[in-house]
Design goal:
- The two termini are 13 Å apart.
- Strand 19 and strand 20 form a beta hairpin.
- The protein is an alpha+beta fold.
- The protein folds into five domains: 126 residues, Orthogonal Prism (Agglutinin, subunit A); 121 residues, Hepatocyte Growth Factor; 57 residues; 90 residues, Phosphorylase Kinase, domain 1 (2-Layer Sandwich), CATH 3.30.200.20; 206 residues, Transferase(Phosphotransferase), domain 1, CATH 1.10.510.
- It is globular, with a radius of gyration of 30 Å.
- The relative contact order is 0.06.
- Strands 36-40-41-39-38-37 form a six-stranded mixed sheet, sandwiched between helices. Strands 29-35-32-33-31 form a five-stranded antiparallel sheet, covered by helices on one side. Strands 1-10-11-12 form a four-stranded antiparallel sheet, with no helix packed on it.
- It has 18 helices and 43 strands.
- Bound molecules: 2-acetamido-2-deoxy-beta-D-glucopyranose (NAG) (8 copies).
- The site of one 2-acetamido-2-deoxy-beta-D-glucopyranose (NAG) has 5 residues, from loops.
- This is Receptor-like serine/threonine-protein kinase.
- It catalyses: L-seryl-[protein] + ATP = O-phospho-L-seryl-[protein] + ADP + H(+); L-threonyl-[protein] + ATP = O-phospho-L-threonyl-[protein] + ADP + H(+).
């Protein structure tokens, strides 16, 4: 039937979001062919459709000629031709009739790139399924291959020969050459180097294999191992020997812009064979082990920018010390600048000394920045020495040793367990605070918890005000739907440091659950924070760049308060960590409750169904900013001590950068619960939640999953279809065969099935509002006879 078809179609779309636009599958690209940079659809796909060669638009800067994973929604780029020199819209790449392959920019008419150093006689080009783009002659001999000209990535079946290099890109989205290089050298060793940016010349290596054998190759073999081989083919040393199945995962090894060489995998589809892997690139292994400690050079910025501090967490996390802020949050290499006027050396130094104080930081060290050293010294002596010295920006102190360090600080890092104390010299500007600032401190203590250390100087306060105003204007333009809230100002949330949460969760040990965007851990707060159990949700795939939006969303989630919602208690927003702390729900999720061993009683189920509807109503209509949940499903409904339903995960859709107002290829939500408008070019409204609720309601009523592969009968596989069939044929008793209680309360059961059918109407406008839905469940409003949910689809498909 049509509904089933629609379901299957949606399912397919979800699996293969791009297959419909791959047009030149498997064909040779003949002489005279060209591609024009117009949109993201200008490409040649490989026969399997897994790789594509063509143009990708890089923000507003222009187009990049590249090869990418074409079935991965992010379209991850693995090779590029013109990262330093993007071309403008309308530019073309052409395989000329003479067999030359070149890229010309339309605005200047100049040749930007050409596939060079190959013999003559090219008769065709091809995008191969391995991710290799080749130019070949009549005998299919490859005269040029992208595999021989790697940029920052290698793929399975690709090899690197001696003197080949990979260059990291500059930032995640800037494909220009960055600061790191991987080289397979003629002495046979693979090494990682920082470069003398912006030059390509190299510093000393920060990682190296340690072999004595020339004539080697770096191999990324077909099963996903990465190793160095001798000329006779024997393995000399492994670089990555973590293995996952090639059938189930895409793989790549990339020298990332942060200087870490990572072996990544991405599940080809969801399903049992890939277990609990996120639908995202996950790191299988990486080199070096600790980049913060490995880069040790007395010039240049190191792993992070000047004045920054590096913390190792599968790569560098760069943070500014207390009293400093990022020069450019999108570019860590720009470093940090003090928020205050540094000490002046103009006058006989001491007059200014009393205006400074020290912020302490454990284990932070700038090992190669020192310009002066004292021993033996007490800590107090060390502080005075730094205060009296206008060159001193930081003093490091340990066991009677005192190091003075000047500006700019570089190669800063956290050295866990070193016992070194950093004393960061900061200007005390409290005497110059504007009076309004002082008042606000007294009046609104809660502001301080969030803004905390930022509110140091008056100029910083003005900055925040400015940002706030900008935010209010921008968010009004961008998101007219949301009632605008004042970020920061109404806040009952606690700010946690990453360290506190690490402690609370015992090092993120006990995992409660895992989704595509986050992992949830059980934790317990310190007794000073009343020792409660909490659920600590670590967001994994947050887009890091919009600090303000994060805070705004957090404050909007933080202001919700309803007995059918899981309460947000606090959050952590430190470096790259974005963590939410919720109250802990002792009785697990509705999924466990409904689909567990014994069937829960009908009265409880009804209470739960009603509770969820009330929670949704609150999100949709009653709280200060309207929240579309976008992912209502049993796993996201938790149960409290008294088996009351609590909706969790609300408000996250926007945080995870899902554009809610328009359908895109990135679908938030879970198969089966996802409303059809996600797959069509229709606006996303509150009604998507009503749809998901309808599916959920059927599951609650029938105590089975919407999709059941092992159903008795094919017609019963999809509950939504089967329920409508039963309802239409007046055979509802089939639905509740094993449920005596339900059979006794047939009238209510029928009513609930009818409500559910109203909710899952294909046409969003036919679905009830959340308000009406709640009234129907409560029995205040009559339920009329629902139409076939799919009538709308069949008329347009
Ligand atoms: C193309 O894709 C990039 C990145 O995926 C995106 O930023 C850009 O807006 C897209 N352009 C079009 C025309 O869809
Ligand atoms: C591509 O062209 C070569 C040489 O003309 C030929 O041998 C090969 O079969 C062609 N491949 C396809 C898929 O058409
Ligand atoms: C990429 O970074 C380089 C180096 O900072 C800069 O010169 C270039 O303009 C950037 N390119 C883009 C497209 O932002
Ligand atoms: C790849 O290398 C691993 C590790 O040496 C080996 O076990 C595997 O058989 C190799 N696969 C292929 C296809 O050569
Ligand atoms: C291959 O070469 C390595 C070192 O060059 C040597 O140790 C090894 O015995 C050789 N293996 C074979 C099978 O020749
Ligand atoms: C800053 O200066 C004020 C006024 O002199 C003083 O009361 C305060 O303790 C100083 N703060 C710090 C952190 O030293
Ligand atoms: C302000 O916050 C601090 C720390 O959270 C707390 O100890 C203090 O009691 C608060 N003061 C007021 C007036 O709320
Ligand atoms: C059904 C169920 O698991 N109920 C439990 C809910 O949580 C409370 C408090 O932890 C337990 O006492 C109940 O047994």
């Amino acid at each position: 039937m049509a509904f089933e078809l629609a379901y299957a179609f949606c399912f397919l779309l979800m699996q293969l979001p791009f297959s419909t636009i791959a047009q030149t599958d498997g064909k040779n690209i003949s002489l005279g062919s060209s591609l024009t940079a117009l949109d993201n659809k200008s490409f040649w796909a490989s026969p399997s459709g897994e790789f594509a060669f063509g143009f990708q638009e890089i923000g507003k800067y222009g187009f990049l000629l590249a090869i990418w994973f074409n079935k991965v929604p992010e379209r991850t780029i693995v090779w590029s031709a013109n990262g330093d020199n993007l071309v403008q819209k309308g530019s073309t790449v052409e395989l000329t009739s003479a067999g030359q392959f070149r890229l010309n920019d339309i605005t200047t008419g100049k040749q930007i790139w050409v596939a060079s150093s190959y013999g003559t006689g090219v008769v065709y080009a091809a995008m191969l399924d391995t991710g290799n783009f080749v130019l070949a002659n009549r005998n299919s001999i490859h005269l040029w291959a992208s595999f021989d000209q790697p940029t920052d990535t290698i793929l399975p079946t690709q090899t690197l020969s001696q003197n080949s290099r990979l260059f990291a890109r500059y930032t995640a989205s800037n494909y220009s050459r960055g600061r790191f290089q991987l080289t397979l050298e003629s002495d046979g060793n693979l090494r990682l180097y920082t470069t003398l940016f912006p030059l390509d010349s190299i510093n000393s290596p920060y990682w190296s294999t340690n072999i004595k054998d020339s004539g080697v190759e770096l191999m990324f073999n077909q099963s996903g191992s990465i190793y160095l081989t001798a000329s006779n083919g024997s393995i000399l040393t492994m670089v990555s020997d973590e293995i996952v199945s090639m059938q189930d995962f895409y793989q790549r090894a990339t020298l990332d812009y942060d200087g870490v060489f990572r072996h990544y995998v991405y599940p080809k589809s969801t399903g049992s064979s890939v277990g609990s892997w996120n639908m995202a690139w996950s790191t299988l292994s990486y080199k070096p082990k600790d980049i913060c400690m490995s880069i040790f050079q007395d010039k240049g910025v190191g792993a992070c920018g000047f004045n920054s501090i590096c913390t190792q967490d599968q790569g560098p996390i760069c943070q500014c010390p207390y009293g400093y802020t990022d020069m450019d949050p999108a570019d860590v290499w720009k470093g940090c600048k003090p928020n205050f006027v540094p000490q002046s050396c103009g006058e006989a130094s001491s007059p200014e000394a009393h205006l400074f104080y020290f912020a302490e930081m454990q284990n932070a060290n700038w090992p190669v920045t020192e310009y002066n050293y004292f021993q033996p010294a007490t800590e107090d002596w060390c502080r005075q020495a730094c205060l009296a010295d206008c060159f001193c920006a930081v003093a490091n102190y340990r066991d009677g040793q005192c190091w003075l360090k000047g500006s700019p600080l570089f190669n800063g890092r956290i050295e866990p367990g070193s016992g070194i104390k950093a004393l960061i010299k900061v200007r005390n500007e409290s005497s110059t605070l504007i009076s309004g600032d002082r008042d606000s401190r007294k009046k609104d203590n809660s502001t301080l918890i969030l803004v905390g250390s930022l509110l140091l100087s008056s100029s910083e306060f003005l900055n925040i005000l400015l940002l706030l105003i900008t935010y209010l204007i921008v968010s009004r333009m961008y998101c007219g739907r949301a009632k605008v809230i004042q970020p920061y100002l109404v806040m009952n949330l606690k700010y946690f440091t990453y360290e506190e949460l690490e402690e609370a969760t015992n090092g993120f040990k006990e995992e409660l659950g895992r989704g595509a965007f986050a992992t949830v851990f059980k934790g317990v707060l310190r007794s000073s924070d009343n020792g409660k159990y909490v659920a600590v949700k670590r967001l994994d795939n947050m887009v890091k760049d919009n600090e303000l939006e994060f805070k705004a969303e957090i404050s909007s989630i933080g202001k919700t308060n309803h007995k059918n919602l899981v309460q947000l208690l606090g959050f952590c927003n430190e470096g790259q960590h974005r963590i939410l702390v919720y109250e802990f729900m002792s009785n697990g999720s509705l999924a466990g409750f409904l689909f567990g061993e014994s069937m829960p009683n009908w009265y409880k189920r009804r209470q739960i169904a009603l509770g969820i509807a009330r929670g949704l109503l609150y999100l949709h209509e009653d709280c200060s900013s309207q929240i579309i949940h976008c992912d209502i499903k049993p796993q996201n409904i938790l149960l409290d001590d008294s088996i009351g339903a609590r909706i969790s995960d609300f408000g996250l859709a926007k945080l995870l950068k899902m554009d809610q107002t328009h359908t895109t290829t990135r679908i938030r939500g879970t198969k089966g619960y996802v409303a059809p408008e996600w797959f069509k070019n229709l606006p996303i409204t509150l009604k998507v939640d009503v749809y998901s609720y309808g599916i959920l309601l059927l599951e609650i009523v029938c105590c089975r999953r919407n999709f059941e592969q092992q159903a008795e009968d094919e017609d019963q596989m999809i509950l939504a279809d089967w329920a409508y069939d039963c309802y239409e044929q007046k055979k509802l008793h089939l639905l509740f065969k094993n449920d005596d209680e339900a059979m006794e309360d047939m009238k209510t059961m029928e009513k609930y099935v009818m409500i559910a059918i109203w909710c899952i109407q294909e046409d969003p406008s036919l679905r009830p509002t959340t308000k009406k839905l709640t009234l129907m469940l409560e029995g205040t409003v009559e339920v009329s006879i629902p139409p076939n949910p799919s009538s709308f689809t069949s008329s347009i498909m």
